[in-house]
Amino acid sequence: MTAQNSATLPAAIAVKGDRNPLARGTALAALGVVAFSLTFPATAWGLESFDPWSLVALRSVLAAAVAGVFLLALRVRPPAREHWAGLAVVAGGVVIGFPLLTTLALRTSTTSHAAVVVGLLPLTTAALSALRTGHRPPRAFWAAAVAGAVVVLGFTLAQSGGSLSAGDGYLFGALLVCAAGYTEGGRLARVLPGWQVIGWALVLCLPLSVAGAVLGLAYEPVRLTGHGVAGLVWAAAGSTFLGLYVWYRGMAEIGTARASQLQLAQPLLTLVWSVALLGERLSPAAPAAACAVLVCIAVTQRVKHP
Q1: pLDDT tens-digit readout, 220-252
Q2: Is the pTM of this model over 0.70?
Q3: 5-13: long-range contacts at Cβ-Cβ below 8 A with a sequence spacing of 24 or more?
């Protein structure tokens, strides 16, 4: 067995003790959702200290440094040539595209409004996965997925007053590129360990990220605050590296379509963090919406796939 196949992160992260692949994969993907739900609040904090281009570039550089330490320490061989095109899609979607577009959107949108993107992401990811892999989930899965997306979309639009903000173009662009990155990353995680998928994608972007950080810091003001630094650190180490590691590993265990539907809970978690960390006001309808979404998630997880 080669180092590329055998190198793993510590057992505490890998959840090795669970012999049930479905339960293990679901737990890992759910942990990824929790990490992702903090991304928008962390980005809002990061924008207190950095402008968008600097924040995104520094986030990528720091995450690549974390990934690089693991890759070097475990002496992981570079992926085979046929995997680099897929890694480029992952890099463009989840390392550069989604962080940059959502950060630009959050200059004018609240985190609760930006959550509409994540509300539609599970359905978009499942659809792209079906097109990419040829896997066709049953009708009951699609019915529950669409119902969950409708609940989340309606709730988040009501939360923001039903109006569209200037940042919505960025948000819907982020939706598409992130779904593409998730789909390709989930496919690669079947042949590479999940942490190596995001690790090599980050390394692939490192020259561009370093150049962006140098230029951004040269032309954009920096106003260091505790919130700003904490937001940057979490976005880099929590959302980008740890979150994507457990997410891709979970998708490899239970499939992209099934894992993607766990993200229906992400906007509601983001709204909770928005209240707790940013002081935004939460709608009284949140508990009802949360229950409806949990029902939809339960259906998508119980449906038998061909």
Answers
A1: 999 999 999 999 999 999 998 889 889 888 888
A2: yes
A3: 5/193, 7/74, 7/75, 7/76, 7/193, 7/196, 8/193, 8/195, 9/70, 9/195, 9/245, 13/242, 13/245, 13/246
